[in-house]
């Protein structure tokens, strides 16, 4: 093998290792974050949801109304049922999607 071929392999290997390390580091906070957070339906404002905004929408930032019952946001575990939601049957966020009542 020539030196230039060896150098290319070494560079490619170093880049692959760096990319692998970066992806591992990036994945760790998400896993840790999800352990102390929970999905809370009906607490996000229009266009501010984290995901699941019902038919005709795609995901994050696509809720069409404030406190949409099928749109959720991540909140600290144990706080969902204490977070105000004027459209919820109980007046607070829910752990499951719900049909909104008039606010």
Structure description:
The protein has 103 residues and is an alpha+beta fold. Helix content is 32%, strand content 10%. The chain has one helix and two strands, in the order αββ. It has a two-stranded antiparallel ribbon. About 5% of the residues have low confidence.
SS content category: alpha+beta
The stretches of 5 or more residues where confidence is low (pLDDT under 50) are 25-29
Give the helix proportion (percent range): 25-40%
Radius of gyration: 22 Å
Q: How many strands, what sense, and barrel or not for the largest sheet? A: 2 strands, antiparallel
- For the terminal residues, how far apart are their CA atoms? 73 Å
What percent of residues are in strands? 5-15%
What overall form do the CA principal axes indicate?
elongated
Task: Name its key features.
two-stranded antiparallel ribbon; about 100 residues; 2 strands; 1 helix; alpha+beta
Please outline what is shown here.
InterPro entries: DUF2282_membr (IPR018740). By secondary structure, the protein is α+β, with helices and mostly antiparallel strands. It has a domain at 35-93.
Topology:
Blueprint: H1 3-35, E1 37-41, E2 72-76
Antiparallel strand pairs: 1-2
């Amino acid at each position: 093998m020539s030196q230039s071929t060896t150098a290319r392999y070494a560079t490619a290997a170093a880049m692959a290792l760096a990319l692998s390390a970066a992806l591992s580091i990036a994945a760790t906070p998400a896993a840790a974050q999800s352990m102390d957070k929970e999905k809370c339906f009906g607490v996000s404002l229009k266009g501010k949801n984290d995901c699941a905004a019902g038919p005709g929408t795609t995901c994050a930032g696509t809720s069409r109304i404030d406190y949409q019952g099928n749109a959720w946001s991540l909140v600290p575990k144990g706080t969902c049922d204490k977070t105000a939601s004027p459209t919820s049957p109980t007046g607070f966020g829910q752990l499951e999607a719900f049909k909104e009542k008039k606010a």
